[in-house]
Known about the structure:
This protein is an alpha/beta fold. The protein contains 19 helices and eleven strands.
Amino acid sequence: MSKIPFGPTYEEMLHPSKIDPKIREKALNAKENELDPINLFNITWKNENNEVNKIVLPKELTGVEANIVVLLGKYFPSGSHKVGPAYSTLIEGCVDQTIVPGQHTILGPSTGNFGIGVSYICNLMKYDAIVIMPDNMSKERYERIRRYGAKLDLTPGTESDVILTLERTFQLKEDPKNRSLAQFELLPNYRFHRHVTGNSCIEAVKGVGNGRIACFTSAPGSAGTLAAGDQIKVAFPEAKVVALEPYECSTLTNGGRGQHRIEGIGDKMCTLIHNVLNTDFIALIKDDDSVKGLKIIHDGIDILVENGIPRETAEHMKEIFGVSSICNIIGAIKMAKYLRLGPDDNVVTIATDGFDRYDSVLKDLNRRYLETEDFVLRRWFKDVFRKNGTEDIADYRPWSQKELLFTQKEKDWLKFGYSQQYLDSMKDMRFWNEEYDKIHHYDNLIKKLREE
């Protein structure tokens, strides 16, 4: 066990100022050498000044009075916040001694960012890794996974066919040397986002508007990020938590299971770790709006400036969002309108990653539309950011609606060996609070084993 380069506790990922100052300094200095294991201590939403990496979107972009605050995942090691759940799941297995270096190979079922996170963390912690993912994702994701040294096991289809990756992972788990970091079903993902992301969201609105969170929007891939909403509701009980789905793959809303282009979300299931008790609304976002929105922000800087956005802000936004980030932003705009929020109110959302893995997606957009000149981008700017309305929003606060989600969860997970009793226990908030409280147990174990 002592050979493992143990990294941070949950509390240190939330508050890197609590890391030993010498280790913190060494980690910050190693950012340019991303394969130095000390970068485990850079897994945090905070920058070197211990401030949350965020942007408050200009209202000239959003067209709403409410403040839309976006946490930026681009600044995590490997370029996405998914590295946090990957590390948390692996480190819990290490301290529980269910994952042993030199004995076990790590499986990472994913549609991209989690797979990148798994391959990155396994590189730093010296584990062999296999990432299982659909064979029709952006080429940048495959290249990055291979660069970090993991093997790829590709299943047929796209984002909407992730159930095939779960079935393949289930097969690979039959080999006793394989251990799965199953983001869709293992609770370290929930713990990371409830503690680290949720509390970072709460910090991010200090000094913005009334300093409270009126609404939190996130598109569920694994639904890990949605767990931030559980902690937000502890601080601000009035906050609304909104799950966003692709219009083309509206599984939670009405069982829809179509193909779509928003990589990282909309996986044709209700994931096991999705706490539907705290999901207040579900909103549908059209996939092409998300891709067009990314095109505008990345390639349409002059269009943004024409609409009153400072050029410096437009230049900054160019590299900090991916496709799912735009989906989350569109969802935040829709909910600000739906809830009739004013200038003191804050809507918080997440940018999972940055632009660095989406160049091929914009090339595909250019191929599909042929014309993407400025006059087209001007029209898209209005259609995507200004004209998106309050259609396709469903209220999931009634228990009858939550029962539909529980039924979907049973359909998805009983076949993978989970009992009805276990699934029923998730209908009580005590289940989620007890799982969350385990962070104290794991933090103590991590500290103990770091000292050996």
